[in-house]
Amino acid sequence: MAGRASSKTSESSDKVSVICRALRRAIIEQALEPGAKLPEDALGERFGVSRTIARHALGQLAAEGLVELRRNRIAVVATPSWQEARDAFDIRIELERLVVRQLAGKLSKSQIAELNAHVDAEDRARGGTDAVSIRLATEFHILLAHMTNSPILVRYVSEVAYRCCLTLSLYSRPHSTECAINEHRAIIAALARGDEAKVMELMHHHLDSVATRALVAPAPQRGRDLLDILAPYADEVTSDRVVKLPKVARRG
Amino acid sequence: MAGRASSKTSESSDKVSVICRALRRAIIEQALEPGAKLPEDALGERFGVSRTIARHALGQLAAEGLVELRRNRIAVVATPSWQEARDAFDIRIELERLVVRQLAGKLSKSQIAELNAHVDAEDRARGGTDAVSIRLATEFHILLAHMTNSPILVRYVSEVAYRCCLTLSLYSRPHSTECAINEHRAIIAALARGDEAKVMELMHHHLDSVATRALVAPAPQRGRDLLDILAPYADEVTSDRVVKLPKVARRG
DNA sequence: GGGCCCCAAACTGCATGCAATTGGAGCGAT
DNA sequence: ATCGCTCCAATTGCATGCAGTTTGGGGCCC
């Protein structure tokens, strides 16, 4: 049951994809912290490919929001703002409610077993590092998405889950993984019972609690970019080199 | 108010992005039909860049699901299956409900005016081609997403809307755009009133009706890939060269 | 006439090379 | 010491070249 085939679009199993996967994993396991530099040369050398390939991989990851690409500058691991992190979680909640809505009562016994096995693995990993726990928890959600057999849903859930993973490494306090594991079990149970409303509520609460527990302080601004902080003030500066921000409603 | 700045991630305003935008537009306006071939050489020559750049652009569009990349084969405009189209609409409904939920009662007068102006433009374009009408309707939704000021939400709504746009060209009958325009006006009104529940319901109904109206026949299979059509039959073929499908629950 | 094979053209996968840009070290002036 | 300037190594942006793969069509045999 391992090795689910990737969708025909993107991830063509060539060298670019290999590097993408490696970097993605390094990022979500926090081996590469937000803000870490990713020079094309270094990547190419490390993975034994040319700069062209490394560059292409960075482009893909940028499209996923995991790295930031600035013209003529070294690419860096993305450093989402607190608001972006919250936005990502909001989107994730809706997407994953959709996942469990589609899955409720539709899972085979072997699929339930697979889910339980994954949570068991999460349980066993409790003694390990936070990074591994977070990765496993994320993969549980992606596993669920895979079971919808909707490539689009898989892609979006994966992406947004990775982004959330990334933000956890920025804003999270050392959080307990136990309750998350219990919530995973509860979700599996509700899915098996086919209790659509309940499982949607469970998923909603699960993600929301992870988000609110993790995204505590509105402004730790650890590695935050000065440019972000000063952006609101730039309006009053009269220079055509200042980045123009579109005027928009910032919801509460 | 035009020229909303693109997010710092992806769309770096270099040559690759230019080509991406051009192709994206060509695809959603059906100048390039699903299945159309996109050789790197031809693209490069057409846009006055090298194959490297054209290739990179194709990679980005593949990540968005607008083109399909097969190893050692010419890239083609994506040809989503009917099920994928339905999945895209389901996701879109959830995302856009989130958009209007965040926006209800939070829009400034000038933003309301901008939305109305856009719908006016849709109205004026009723006499034109279907392609333009569809593009404008799509851009209305993307305009809404922009107003949330959430780059992530903008990206996902844009992507999924483009994908839906693409599927419309595959499975849609010549549909009337009038009711869609009226529904857009109703949504604006509900947003201005700040009626959150109502606007979510309106958006849901709007998209759902577009989807069900458009995705009528489960199998028009115009330019559909034989491989997709025959996939269910491949199970009975005993050969290790047959593409293995993971066994999953296909929800009703 | 129809099926098969083989080969050339077309195309992709990837590496390398060159020009342009950046950012930071070094250094002198304040 | 701090600021500002200059210059060079590091790095990106992009084009080109080469090798391997796919395509499709002509010729050959049945």
From TrEMBL, chains A, B:
Entry keyword set: DNA-binding, Transcription, Transcription regulation
PANTHER family: HTH-TYPE TRANSCRIPTIONAL REPRESSOR NANR, TRANSCRIPTIONAL REGULATOR, GNTR FAMILY
Boundaries of every HTH gntR-type domain copy: 13-80
Keyword Transcription: yes
Name of the protein this chain belongs to: GntR family transcriptional regulator
UniProt organism field: Bradyrhizobium niftali
SUPFAM superfamilies documented for this protein: GntR ligand-binding domain-like, Winged helix' DNA-binding domain
Record-level Gene Ontology MF annotations: DNA binding; DNA-binding transcription factor activity
